[in-house]
Each structure stands twice: as C-alpha cells, then as structure tokens.
Amino acid sequence: MSEDRPARAGQGPLAGCVRLAVERYFQDLNGQCPGTSLYETVIGEVEAPLIETVMRHVGHNQCQAAKILGINRNTLRKKLLCYGLVERPEPLPPTQGNELS
Fold first, then answer.
1. To the nearest 10°, the Cα dihedral for 97, 98, 99, 100?
2. What is the pTM of this model?
3. H helices within the chain, ranges in order?
4. 59 domain residue, yes or no
5. In this predicted model, what pLDDT tens digit does every residue of 57-99 receive, in sequence order?
6. Which residues form the DNA binding HTH domain (predicted)?
7. In a domain, 98, yes or no
8. Contact criterion met (CB below 8 Å) for 55 and 80
9. Measured between alpha carbons, how far is 34 from 44 in angstroms, rounded to an integer?
C-alpha cells in the first residue's frame, strides 16, 4: 500500500487495536448489554488522547494539528477547551476612562 493513499475503512494500522479493545470490552461485560452508547463511549475515550498526541507532535501548533486531524481550527479549539488540554484565557479587565488621551 502506498503511503499517500489512505487505507480502506477498517484496514488501517489502528483497526486491529480497536478490534482488540472492543472484544476485550465485551468480554469484560460477561454477556451483559452495555449500559450506554458504545459509539459515544469509544469516541469519548479516544478523542482526547488523539488530540493531545497530535498537539504534542506539532509543538502545540493548533493550525497544524487541525490540518492533520482534518477539522476546523475553531472546532479543535473548542475540543481542547472541552477536554482541558488548554487553559481558558482570562477575560480582560474592564477599562475605565480613556487610556489613550
């Protein structure tokens, strides 16, 4: 497979890891039904470390990270704030009077 062509769905290098993790999850349930949406559970557990790792890889450059992740930079910023991966900026104090005169 060429490096510039994406793998078919479910055939990439991460697919095997996901399969093993989901199989282990079902084994741990001992035949019981999951109590919540499995999709939401997986996304919730995978998205934060994915973003954190990509951010570290690009030296915390949000534009580069967003490009690698294939999402808008503003979407990335919201996710960084949501997962606590960046600090929320402090609001500027209100100004009193005209500072320029």
1. -170
2. 0.70
3. 15-29, 38-57, 62-69, 73-82
4. yes
5. 999 999 999 999 999 999 999 999 999 999 877 777 887 765 5
6. 44-80
7. no
8. yes
9. 15
Nearest to 54 by CA among 72, 40, 67, 41: 67
> What confidence tens digit (pLDDT) does each residue in 3-46 have?
555 557 778 888 999 999 999 999 999 989 988 899 998 998 99
pLDDT of residue 56: 98
Q: Could you give phi then psi for residue 88, rounded to 5 degrees?
A: -70, 130
How many structural domains is the chain composed of?
1
Question: Can you tell me the distance from the alpha carbon of 89 to that of 65, in angstroms, rounded to the nearest whole number?
Answer: 20
- The domain in which residue 50 lies consists of 15-82
Q: Is residue 27 part of a domain?
A: yes
> Could you tell me if residue 77 is inside a domain?
yes
Are the C-beta atoms of residues 73 and 66 closer than 8 Å to each other? Answer: yes
Q: What is the CATH number of the domain that holds 48?
A: 1.10.10.60
CA separation for the pair 25, 34 (Å, rounded): 9
